[in-house]
Amino acid sequence: MSVKKIPLEVLFGDPELGQVRVAPDGRSVAFIAPWEGVKNLWVMDLASGERHRVTSDRGRGVQGHGWLPSGLLIYAQDKDGDENWRLYAVDPAVGEPRLLTPGEGVQAQLLAVHPDYPDELLVLLNDRDPALHDVWRINARTGERRRALENPGFIGFLADERLNVRLAHKSSDDGGGELYLREGDAWKPLLRWGLDDSLGTWPLALRGNTLYMASSLGRDTAALVAVDLATGEEQLLAEDPRYDLPNEEGLLFHPRAARPEAVAVMRDRLGWIVLDPALEPDFERLAELDGDVYVTSRDQANRVWVVREELDAQSPRYWVYDRSTRELTLLGDAHPALADYTLAPMQPVRYRARDGLEIEAYLTLPPGREPRGLPTVIFPHGGPWYRDVWGFDPIAQWLANRGFAVLQPNFRGSTGYGKTLLNAGNKEWGRKMQDDLTDGVRWLVEQGIADPERVAIMGGSYGGYATLAGLAFTPELYAAGVDIVGPSNLFTLLETVPPYWKPMIALFHTRMGHPERDAELLRAASPLFSAEKIQAPLLIGQGANDPRVKRAESLQIVQALKEKGKPVEYVEYPDEGHGFVKAENRLDFFRKAEAFLEKHLNP
After folding, report:
1. CA atoms of 262 and 274, how far apart (whole Å)
2. Residue 354's CB: how many other CB atoms inside 10 A?
3. Residue of 28, 297, 461, 488 marked active site
4. What is the pTM of this model?
């Protein structure tokens, strides 16, 4: 079978339809689409199909947005990737944005909105102390704002239906967490958990005197539980024996609902556990779609839903679902040009690590080719406290289209699979976490899929670190590496975390290693100090304004490799941060990456 080459512009250009959100009245949707090559905010009337542009940004573009109950839109922008988010409000009928969170070097995070306060929102701002976000109450229509709560040392808050902050949590010195209940001006300790449960236990929502939270306490996987704040009694609402649930996006909890309605669980593919029987016919209808169903937004009447259908070998697509008629109406594809090309299925696979731990992964094979002796790319995810999921992945599709097999392992230390697999990654950067990737290569070779002489490793953030570690610690394994914003020195990485990460630095010290108590371990796990062992050619991409992995992480290993006469290419983008948001930068980097891989792996 002959497979057409997919242009990079089709794979890595901005979506023509993205982040679709239904308006509170259910009559229109807002979405992000390009205008003059820049992502801007648009609104479409659902009855007529007419669309109009709300913003006219010619710079970095709109990165995220949402509706207020009043029908105003809010959206977020940073400056050249610095992640100091600014929030703007705009009336879609007028189109004149109002900056809600002025100030240089200040990061805004949306905390809460509620239909009873249609123009108001709670926002977290670190304007007083870069390390701590205070709670501000802002009227988006007038711009009036006041500091509702000065943060005494917490990393997160929950508000009730009156937009009063009633719960907060913080990181403890042992890498665990502590939950506090607000009583007047005092904070009363409510719950404590240790390191083992720190990434599986967190508060989700508050209704009256009931707290809904994810909890791995007393179990391996995170479950959805309800806690009575008066008695402390806990009720189990939903759990899965193998996979964690939920995250904030996977909890369906309408502002007018008394209890959670449904919760998502990411197994090999996304599934739903329906808690409210009234929604069972809706999920039965949505299950008729071929792909995985993400409910991205709902109107105030809970009648009109926007659904994103995630497919592996097609573009993601958006639907409007009317609960009153059970009717699904297609809004469109995120990347409609992909319909002209053959994409590759993403297959869930499993293999055993050398110590017997089962590793779940996704394998994407080049369409139209026999899966034997293929050039292969190991593509580990970032985080590392994260996981890959099934669906459309532009990087995997690009590589498969160019003839590569692609393996995306959810190695130990990944979230989503319970705390046994998660905690098996503690202090294992460059060690057992890296062994899981190595064992993935060996499994592919044993299966006859991979050509052992033509295996590369590529990734971003932690995946970029794993790329450097793979080349430094297993130099015989890889023929090339592509690192995007990956740290090379774990000491400098920990020293230069953003100020607002410092209140939870114990989490990093306990899961990665302490710079003083574990200095030998961190040095051994830092690719910079083994740069002389790197043999394979390396391409590094970096954003100049990355607040998480500073550009020095890339510059220091580039310098070390050049001093040793090692083959390294470096590209830096002055208007990017932790990854490449602007389409022209993405396209430039992946053109370079394509030429690099073609040169060294000959697909």
Report:
1. 4
2. 11
3. 461
4. 0.97
Provide the residue count of the chain: 603
Q: Positive or negative, the Cα torsion across 179, 423, 386, 344?
A: negative
Given a contact cutoff of 8 angstroms between Cβ atoms, the answer to whether 196 and 419 are in contact is: yes
Joined together, the tokens standing for residue 93 give: 């009928």
At 45-91, the pLDDT tens digits run 999 999 999 999 999 999 999 999 999 999 999 999 999 999 999 99
- CB burial readout 528-549, b (16+ within 10 A) else e: bbbbeebebbbbbbbbebbbbb
Mark whether 57 is an active-site residue. no
Token pair listed for 462: 């932690």
Residue found by looking up tokens 């796990």 in the block: 525
Beta strand 202-207 with 210-215 is: antiparallel
What amino acid is encoded at 169 in this protein?
A: H
User: Secondary structure of the chain: what % helix, strand, coil (to 5)?
Assistant: 20, 35, 45
Of 451, 546, 554, 600, catalytic:
546
* Burial tier of 222 (Cβ tally within 10 Å: 0-12, 13-18, 19+): buried
- 578 part of the active site: yes
pLDDT tens digits along 484-543: 999 999 999 999 999 999 999 999 999 999 999 999 999 999 999 999 999 999 999 999
Query: Catalytic: 451?
Result: no
Please report the beta strands in 176-238, taking only residues with DSSP state E, as ranges in sequence order.
177-183, 186-193, 202-207, 210-215, 223-228, 234-238
